[in-house]
Design brief:
alpha/beta; Spore Coat Polysaccharide Biosynthesis Protein SpsA, Chain A; eight-stranded mixed sheet; two-stranded antiparallel sheet; 8 helices; G1P_cyt_trans; transferase; Glucose-1-phosphate cytidylyltransferase; nucleotidyltransferase; glucose-1-phosphate cytidylyltransferase activity
Length: 257
């Protein structure tokens, strides 16, 4: 199975970081969130990745071009103009970095990468969210129902403390700091898609989360895999701080490798 990661958006809500780099390269610890996402996926046996680049995509290409320089020992023979890597303890990933356009929407990015897919289902996610999602179980669930698309449904934690009030009574009855979600399920990314689902994409301006997902829902072809564990996006600077605090504590829930 191949994994496709959408990594081309502007990331405007994290402008403190994304003014100089694409959001997938914003770091958690010493590595970008894109690396963390790929480590999560590789832990479930998937090693072939298609990264759909757009905004500042050259920096993503440069990250992978220089990966060996950071991870491996190297010998430069200047007389022979040759390079020899001294070991092979790096990742075993195969990564295709595809320029899908600066202004292309999410659906359009998927469609532009369709030629790189096989006839088999593929994993798709975004380059800005991590979780301890059991991707193996997600894939098994997708294969079991036979529909075109599976989306991972998550319940995000609350961002603010909640006060509980009785009607017509000014006294606070209870207060809970940052409670769990209110029971609402949202998309956490991590889709498994049949390539035929991409036939619903009409062009570069097609937003995957609007037209195609709506059409799949109406046709009864979109099924939700409920993930009740940890999931957290990196949408804002606050999210970056939360994820870094978890990582630096040595107890990051998504570190399943």
């Amino acid at each position: 199975m191949k994994a496709m990661i959408l990594a081309g958006g502007l990331g405007t809500r994290l402008s403190e970081e994304t003014s100089v780099m694409p959001k997938p390269l914003v770091e958690i610890g010493s590595e970008p969130i894109l690396w963390h996402i790929m480590k999560i996926i590789r832990g479930h046996g998937i090693r072939e990745f298609i990264v759909c680049c757009g905004y500042k995509g050259l920096l993503i290409k440069r990250y992978f071009a220089e990966y060996g320089l950071r991870a491996l020992n190297v010998t430069y023979d200047l007389a022979e103009s040759s390079v020899e890597y001294r070991d092979r303890h790096g990742e075993d990933w195969r990564v295709t970095l595809l320029d899908t356009g600066l202004d292309t929407m999410t659906g359009g990015r998927l469609r532009r990468a369709a030629d790189l897919l096989d006839d088999e289902p593929f994993l798709m996610t975004y380059g800005d969210g991590v979780g301890n999602i059991d991707i193996s179980a997600l894939v098994d669930f997708h294969r079991s129902h036979g529909k075109l698309a599976t989306v991972t449904a998550v319940q995000p934690t609350g961002r603010f403390g909640a006060m509980y009030l009785a009607e017509q009574d000014p006294h606070v009855r209870a207060f809970k700091e940052k409670p769990d979600g209110d029971g609402t399920w949202i998309s956490g990314g991590f889709f498994v898609l049949d390539p035929r689902a991409l036939d619903l994409v009409t062009g570069d301006d097609c937003v995957w989360e609007h037209g195609p997902m709506g059409a799949l829902t109406e046709a009864g072809e979109l099924v939700a895999y409920r993930h009740q564990g940890f999931w957290h996006p990196m949408d804002t600077l606050r999210d970056k701080h939360v994820l870094n605090e978890l990582w630096n504590s040595g107890k990051a829930p998504w570190q399943t490798w």
